[in-house]
Design goal:
about 0% strand, about 65% helix, mainly alpha
């Protein structure tokens, strides 16, 4: 009768077995291994075991870590500022520039209709009352633009 062959263990299986034994506390030192890559991985497992304690942290340490974390987050949020285009000052300047442009455009458009009518133009009765209405509308637009651009 033939003896059943033992399954050949791959390096992954060997490393998994080694890691399980280290985590259970059965191994405290690295066994000599002929494979250099496996030996390097075993050393890494041992360093992880030494780096992370098995016993849980006490309450004071946890609270200190949480407060340190919150303080750090608060400081980083103060340091990181918003982009310049989101600032209040930029928005105010933008609104004022828009208002100035709107006023200039309105004056440019309304200037021909605000003339007195004296000159070569015949039959311009009622022009003066139109200019008063147009000036009132222009003033209302100016007030509206400044009212929309004010601080809230």
């Amino acid at each position: 009768m033939t003896q059943p062959d033992k399954p050949i263990q791959t390096p992954d299986d060997l490393l998994a077995d080694f890691t399980d034994r280290v985590m259970d506390g059965k191994i405290t030192a690295i066994a000599s291994s002929s494979d250099q890559e496996l030996r390097g991985l075993e050393e890494t497992v041992m360093r992880f075991k030494r780096a992370f304690p098995t016993e849980p942290l006490d309450e004071k340490t946890l609270e200190r870590m949480q407060t340190d974390f919150k303080t750090r987050i608060r400081k980083e949020s103060l340091i990181s500022s918003r982009p310049a285009w989101q600032s209040r000052q930029f928005r105010q300047r933008f609104v004022l520039a828009f208002a100035a442009i709107a006023i200039l455009v309105a004056i440019f458009i309304l200037t021909p209709s605000l003339t007195s009518g004296i000159g070569d133009v015949q039959g311009t009765a009622g022009l003066q009352s139109q200019s008063i209405v147009l000036l009132a509308i222009l003033g209302g637009v100016i007030v509206l633009v400044f009212w929309l651009g004010r601080r809230k």
